[in-house]
Every structure is written in C-alpha cells, then in structure tokens.
Amino acid sequence: MCSCRASGGGLVQAGGSLRLSCAASGRDFSNYVMGWFRQAPGKEREFVAVINWSGSSTYYADSVKGRFTISRDNTKNTVYLQMNSLKPEDTAVYYCAARRTLTSYYNPSTYGIWGQGTLVTVSS
Fold it and tell me: Which of 3, 50, 68, 75 could hold 64 in an S-S bridge, CB 3.0 to 4.6 Å?
C-alpha cells in the first residue's frame, strides 16, 4: 500500500453526525490494520479507533466509545469512521493511518503510513 487519502470532514453542530472515509492506494489493503487518530490545536495526536485486517475486531478510545464506529471495505480499499452524537471536544484534524500488526495500536509512532488529515469542526 502506497498512500492514504482521508475525506469527509466539515462543520457540524453538536449532536450531529459525519462519516469520514480513507481511501488507500495499492493492492494489499487487506494486509493492513487501519487506524484513525485526531489532533486538536495545541494538543498531541491521539488514538480514536482501529480495525484489524478483516474487520472482525475493532477498538476505540474511551472518549468515543458508543458514538463512533470504524469499518472497512476491502473491495474498495477504504476505511470509514462514522461519527455520531458529535461534541465540540471532537473538533480536530482527523488522520487515517496504516500498519501491519495490532501491537500497541494506540501509539501513533507505530504506524508507518499516514494520510493527509481532514478537519472536523463541531460547533456548540
């Protein structure tokens, strides 16, 4: 897999929903674990969600559990992040990332491939 491209960000009111997409190039998308991270102004990049190669296992940050859903379509080389019940504190640039294994999936430094970010702004 060569690169990832995230899209779907925008401005939404608190309580609203957005779906982010991350399209990957290359032929071996199904061999990669895919993660979503976010970075708010002045803060460090933080883990949001991760999905394994087949989509059978997912993990979430406590702050988004029950509100966000990560999924993937290996036939389309795409991973999604459905975000519901959005809060102003969800405002950030969201990034997708790829790696081979699930070990320490919450650590952004373990991901070798990153897409460009997409901005999500949640107004109160």
Answer: 68
Structure tokens belonging to residue 11: 């401005």
CA atoms of 28 and 122, how far apart (whole Å): 34
CB atoms within 10 A of CB 86: 22
Does residue 74 register a pLDDT over 90?
yes
Q: CB–CB of 98/4 below 8 Å?
A: yes
C-alpha to C-alpha distance for 67 and 121, rounded to whole angstroms = 16
Rounded-to-integer distance, Cα 23 and Cα 78, Å: 4
Give the separation between CA 43 and CA 30, rounded to whole angstroms: 31
Q: Which of 3, 66, 10, 70 is nearest to 37 (CA)?
A: 70
SS (H, E, C) 24-63: ECCCCHHHCEEEEEEECCCCCCEEEEEECCCCCCEEECCC
Report the Cα 87 to chain-centroid distance in Å: 17
Tell me which amino acid residue 45 is.
R
pLDDT tens per residue across span 38-57: 999 999 999 999 999 999 99
